[in-house]
Amino acid sequence: MTVPLFQVDAFTAEPFAGNPAAVCLLDHEAEPGWMQRVAAEMNLAETAFVRPMGSGDDAVFGLRWFTPAVEVELCGHATLASAHVLWNEGRARAGRPIRFQTLSGELRANDRDDVIELDFPATPAAAADPPAGLLEALGEPARTVRWAGRSRFDHLLELGSEAAVRGLEPDFGKLREISTRGVIATAESEADGFDFVSRFFAPAVGIDEDPVTGSAHCALGPFWADRLGRADLTGFQASRRGGVVRTRTAGGRVLLGGQAVTVLRGTLIG
């Protein structure tokens, strides 16, 4: 079996920044064990598997996401990468929306003035004490925590400053013992052009630190919209690679905006 394969840097306008994702274009549903092995071989935070489900002008695709270790229910950067590939490769008509059928329901992608906008479900966090050992696993800067909560997928911590978020040096062995998909650390931005900063850690699903996490912004968008009193915000994920995510909170949905760059095009054999 041969499968068109792409590597795309998402939530960036420049190559070798943002979050890399692999995108496999399938012509039929694949066996989950095979997809998991491919994702392990790619060894990126996420590998997306896309297959057509509609015909004609009805751009409907099945979409599944795998880390090197597990299948996940929601992934932003690999969805953005998939939409980018479908439009660029002519698999979806330029200027028309794409609908994805996923484990998180139907997701939509639109191309808006060189920015891809994803329509995702909001996953707001409710106040909750951090589990035992979490702050210790994140290191000394986590002791500045101002607010702690839990979203559908992750623990969310607001820290006292941008410097505290950037200064985190987690013990990933200890973090792996926390029962959660991931941990989001965030603070209000101190730089012009950004409203908030964040980092995301998910060693339990095979990702120590994710470079840019679209799905985490389904919680971050509502969180900061409530605190800053504005629906439209710009976040910077302060990983080593870094990336920019625009959020617009609208009721039970969050629109995630970003750019993407193809850095590799090839064929998967096996």
Q: Can you describe this structure?
A:
By secondary structure, this protein is an alpha+beta fold. The chain has 2 domains: 2-120 and 256-269, Diaminopimelate Epimerase, Chain A, domain 1 (Roll), CATH 3.10.310.10; 126-251, Diaminopimelate Epimerase, Chain A, domain 1 (Roll), CATH 3.10.310.10. The chain is 18% helix and 41% strand. It has 6 helices and 18 strands. It has helices spanning 32-42, 77-88, 134-138, 162-166, 172-175, 217-228; strands spanning 2-10, 19-25, 46-52, 60-66, 71-72, 98-102, 105-112, 115-121, 126-127, 147-150, 154-158, 182-188, 196-202, 207-210, 232-237, 243-250, 253-258, 260-269. The protein has an 18-stranded mixed β-sheet that branches. It starts with a strand and ends with a strand. The mean pLDDT is 95.
Principal-axis shape: globular
**Could you give me the name of the CATH homologous superfamily of the largest domain?**
Diaminopimelate Epimerase, Chain A, domain 1
What is the CATH architecture term of the largest domain?
Roll
The tally of beta strands, per DSSP, is 18
In CATH's first tier, which class of the largest domain applies?
A: Alpha Beta
Q: How many structural domains? A: 2
Task: Compose a concise summary of this entry.
With 270 residues, this protein is an alpha+beta fold. It contains 6 helices and 18 strands.
Topology:
Layout: E1 2-10, E2 19-25, H1 32-42, E3 46-52, E4 60-66, E5 71-72, H2 77-88, E6 98-102, E7 105-112, E8 115-121, E9 126-127, H3 134-138, E10 147-150, E11 154-158, H4 162-166, H5 172-175, E12 182-188, E13 196-202, E14 207-210, H6 217-228, E15 232-237, E16 243-250, E17 253-258, E18 260-269
Parallel strand pairs: 2-3, 4-6, 11-12, 13-15
Antiparallel strand pairs: 1-2, 1-18, 3-4, 4-5, 6-7, 7-8, 8-17, 9-10, 10-11, 12-13, 13-14, 15-16, 16-17
